[in-house]
Design goal:
By secondary structure, this protein is α+β, with helices and mostly antiparallel strands. It has helices spanning 3-10, 21-41, 43-48, 64-74, 77-86, 122-131, 160-167, 220-223, 234-238, 244-256; strands spanning 12-15, 52-54, 91-100, 134-140, 144-149, 182-186, 191-195, 200-202, 209-217. The protein has one domain (3-256): q2cbj1_9rhob like domain (Jelly Rolls), CATH 2.60.120. It has a six-stranded antiparallel sheet. It has a three-stranded antiparallel sheet with strand order 6-5-8, with no helix packed on it.
């Protein structure tokens, strides 16, 4: 099935071996620097429960040359060519995340939709499910167990089982297994595209170390969640061959302010 068709039908698609070894090594070099500096600065959180970090393209832990390498990767045709096909209208840059294993190997993973962390009612969440597109592009830098997802939940609401587990009601826990789950394992060089709206959970184990780029619809409502210092400006923006993705976000931020 074509990746675009697969995504729209199931809420995810996998493109195997999309990135070459040099692209992965360049990413790993920069992200390893970020990760070590972030851990040092967030050691208590890391030791307690952390499974990801965010705002990687900020200048807090990386210099301009390292940030530029990430910006150029994010705007590469390999990535944007897929994003532009999947989004109904033009995409905008939202955030980046780095996913790793918890320090405690017994820590349990959990089912969720990203939109459940918005301070809105269930009815409003159902509306967001239809109206809003936020999409993860995950690039594993090591072989990893990947994710479990519930296909189709990017456009449909939970079953009773899914809702009970995700919200820990009716005696269920958010780490309970779901009967409709599909396991997606990932290898170095793969790209996993999946809707942040769908019911999913990360799988811990191996040497999990994955870079996520979050794209969203180019709307004022979504772009307000992007962090201005994570975007290129000035000379950095000029040094990006195809900066439209970031320009889409920056223009809406200016409009929002």
């Amino acid at each position: 099935m074509d990746p675009q068709e697969e995504y729209h039908e199931n809420g995810f698609c996998v493109i195997k071996g999309l990135f070459c070894s040099s692209e992965i090594e360049n990413l790993r070099a920069v992200l390893s620097i970020f990760h070590e500096r972030w851990k040092k600065d967030n050691i208590n959180f890391y030791n307690a429960k952390a499974v990801n970090s965010a705002y990687i393209t900020d200048s807090k832990y990386l210099d301009d040359a390292q940030r530029l390498s990430l910006f150029r990767f994010i705007c590469s045709q390999k990535i944007l060519g897929i994003a532009e096909k999947i989004f109904p209208n033009k995409p905008a840059f939202m955030n980046t995340q780095l996913f790793f294993n918890p320090k405690d190997s017994q820590q349990k993973n959990y089912w969720h939709r990203d939109l459940q962390y918005n301070p809105v009612s269930v009815e409003e969440q159902k509306k967001l499910l239809v109206d809003v597109n936020v999409i993860h592009f995950r690039i594993p830098l090591q072989p990893e167990p990947g994710l479990e997802i519930i296909p189709g939940t990017h456009t449909r609401w939970d079953t009773e089982e899914e809702f009970s587990v995700r919200n820990e009601i009716n005696g269920r826990q958010r780490f309970d297994n779901l009967s409709s789950a599909k396991h997606i394992s990932l290898d170095v060089g793969d790209l996993l595209v999946f809707s942040a709206n769908m019911v999913h959970r990360g799988l811990y184990g191996l040497d999990r170390f994955s870079f996520d780029i979050l794209f969203c619809d180019a709307t004022r409502e979504l772009v307000q969640y992007a962090k201005p210092t994570c975007l290129p400006d000035g000379l950095l923006l000029e040094a990006i061959e195809t900066p439209d993705l970031f320009v889409n976000t920056l223009e809406l931020m200016d409009d929002f302010s």
